[in-house]
Design goal:
Helix content is 66%, strand content 0%. The chain is mainly α and 349 residues long.
Length: 349
């Protein structure tokens, strides 16, 4: 048992029980109520990388030899990436940090905010490399307003940010329930579906020998996003243990409806990306993969799977070399600073 866990055990014997969504601002790490969240923070520190490590050296030449349909896919994908992580960062600052009342959890969220900023820098570098024309870059940044398939996803995200914007304190079960839905949305739908769907296109292109710089950077982003999702689901699990009455049939219905809407949004995005005909990708297969991911998210939440879909993309399994086991069960020494290797998008997180 770690020192933090032992300390948490002693605290449990001598202190009034704490709940992670109780209003207030607990400030000290001792006694530590949630040592598992502190371990996640320490693991995140070890998973450090920089944008300067990403080599885009061959990507521009790859873009020149791609088909028009493939280039359209990349342009739309980059336009989504341009603002996707900024949306997540806004929810983190405006909502999560305010209400998750444990200093060890806020330490993790502070680290996550750094990682979201790093992703924004990565995608800015990607835009500068792939889209050298200033006016075209401006159009990419405006995609959340001008491209319907991207605007639909952004509107979905912003609606859930706004859903708890007026909550200063989680005083009632109804407040906590609203917060839980926001937390689950960003873990299961935005990080767990929108980003996983985007990563699929990246690894599809790499399976064809294209855009190795983008794929290399995405390996690191994927690790970060998977850890963010795991943290959020751990907070949800803590709330379930502390306040099980919140997890009623109404909450589950809302979660299922939320996932269904997210799948529809991402399917419309897929129709935009591959509608021009990209050999090896179809909208139907993308939707099945999203349904497969949604079932994994439901299982993580302790809910029955809904879609019964299997992963249609064999190339995702081929991405893995060393990390086909659950990423979060591996020793932290496996992902030290500047970690290299492959990632698996078919792992059951």
């Amino acid at each position: 048992m770690s020192a933090e866990a032992a300390e948490g055990g002693r605290a449990g014997a001598n202190q009034q029980p704490v709940r992670i969504l109780d209003p207030g601002m607990r400030l000290t790490l001792r006694p530590m109520a949630y040592p598992q969240l502190f371990e996640m923070y320490k693991a995140a520190i070890k998973n450090t990388w920089t944008v300067e490590e990403v080599d885009f050296g061959t990507d521009v030449a790859d873009l020149a030899r791609m088909t028009p349909a493939e280039r359209h896919l990349v342009q739309r994908l980059v336009a989504f990436f341009a603002t996707g992580d900024s949306i997540v960062a806004n929810n983190l600052v405006l909502n999560l940090y305010k209400h998750v009342n444990a200093p060890e959890a806020r330490m993790y969220l502070s680290r996550q905010l750094f990682e979201e900023a790093l992703h924004v820098q990565f995608y800015l570098t990607l835009l500068d490399t792939y889209v050298p024309d200033h006016d075209e870059r401006q159009r990419a940044f405006a995609a959340v307003e001008t491209i319907p398939s991207i605007k639909q996803k952004a509107d979905f995200c912003l609606r859930w940010i706004d859903s708890i914007h007026d909550l200063d304190r989680l005083e009632t079960p109804a407040h906590r329930r609203r917060f839980l839905l926001n937390l689950i949305c960003f873990a299961a739908c935005i990080e767990g579906l929108f980003f996983f769907g985007a990563f699929t296109y990246v690894y599809f292109l790499r399976s064809k020998g294209l855009l190795h710089g983008l794929a290399g950077g995405t390996n690191w982003v994927f690790r970060d996003e998977s850890a963010h999702m795991a943290f959020a689901f751990e907070v949800v699990a803590i709330v379930r243990r502390e306040e099980p009455a919140l997890f009623d049939e109404a909450l589950e219905r809302d979660v299922r409806a939320m996932l269904a809407e997210a799948i529809d949004c991402e399917t419309q995005f897929a129709a935009d990306l591959v509608g021009g005909g990209v050999a090896g990708l179809s909208v139907g297969d993308v939707r099945r993969y999203l349904e497969y991911c949604a079932d994994q998210r439901l299982a993580t939440l302790g809910m029955a799977k809904q879609y019964g879909a299997s992963n249609p993309f064999g190339f995702l399994a081929l991405q893995d070399v060393q990390e086909v086991t659950n990423f979060f069960e591996r020793r932290v020494s496996a992902y030290q600073v500047g970690v290299e290797g492959e990632v698996a998008l078919d792992a059951a997180f």
